[in-house]
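Tokens in:
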């Protein structure tokens, strides 16, 4: 059996096509077809069975091309829109010298501020100060 990442949607379609070549007279996979296809693609027979069941359900619902894809796009938790520009403008530069101080002054969690820094949307403002730790944070212009 296969150890590693899940099957891609193209591989799932190939598993379905391989099962179609092993149908009996009644239109069902012949005896041992799941095991044979599973060995061919180095997956568990239960995986092949799930792909077949998904295809049968999608065809029964009226779809012309069976939907065997399990990986969907746009999955996961959606991001909340944060308008930090107004909150940041209200905070004086002396209260923006650390992520903790900025978080307390704006009410935005430290983890969210750190994510914005890693994304490049928030950075330290360059100033004439010698100590880098005293430089306040600013939003990077989106233009």
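Residues out:
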């Amino acid at each position: 059996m296969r150890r590693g990442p899940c099957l891609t949607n193209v591989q799932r379609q190939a598993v379905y096509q391989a099962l179609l070549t092993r149908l009996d007279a009644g239109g069902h996979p012949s005896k041992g077809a799941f095991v044979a296809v599973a060995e061919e693609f180095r997956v568990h027979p239960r995986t092949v069975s799930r792909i077949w069941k998904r295809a049968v359900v999608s065809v029964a619902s009226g779809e012309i091309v069976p939907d065997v894809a399990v990986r969907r796009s746009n999955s996961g938790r959606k991001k909340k829109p944060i308008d930090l520009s107004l909150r940041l403008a209200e905070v004086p530069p002396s209260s923006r010298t650390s992520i903790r101080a900025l978080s307390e002054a704006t009410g935005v969690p430290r983890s969210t501020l750190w994510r914005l820094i890693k994304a490049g949307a928030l950075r330290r403002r360059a100033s004439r100060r010698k100590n880098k730790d005293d430089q306040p944070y600013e939003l990077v212009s989106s233009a």
